[in-house]
């Protein structure tokens, strides 16, 4: 509809009457179109408010931070288990040598 207003010998008032909208609304749409507001709708993508987009970005950042924290905790626990398992083996070896030498 906005594109029709740029055709030769077509007025905004004529296009507005044709589509049943107020001419001032059509002028507002033309202004938005010239500022690029209709690019997302032209590409048939969903349009979301900028505030919602920022809130979702913050949520993703927080989830990534928490995931990194949990991953780090998991790595620390895994290393602790390896150290504990290694010291148990060392302890068992030293005990078995002590028992074997006393015989």
Largest sheet: none
- Listing every helix as H and every strand as E from the N terminus to the C terminus, the arrangement reads HHHH
Unreliable stretches (pLDDT < 50, length at least 5) are none
Tally of helical segments: 4
The 3D shape can be described as rod-shaped
The termini sit apart by 101 Å
Question: How many beta-strand runs?
Answer: 0
Query: Mean of residue pLDDT?
Result: 79
Structural class, by secondary structure, is mainly alpha
Helical residue percent band: over 70%
β content, as a range? under 5%
Gyration radius, to the nearest Å?
Answer: 35 Å
Number of discrete domains:
1
GO biological process, one term: DNA transposition
Organism: Asticcacaulis benevestitus DSM 16100 = ATCC BAA-896
Protein name: Transposase
GO molecular function: DNA binding; transposase activity
Summarize the structure in words.
With 103 residues, the protein is mainly α. It has one domain (3-101). 74% of the residues lie in helices and 0% in strands. It has four helices and no strands. It has helices at residues 12-19, 23-34, 39-42, 50-101. Helix 1 (12-19) crosses helix 2. It is rod-shaped, with a radius of gyration of 35 Å. The mean pLDDT is 79. One of its GO terms (molecular function) is DNA binding. This is Transposase.
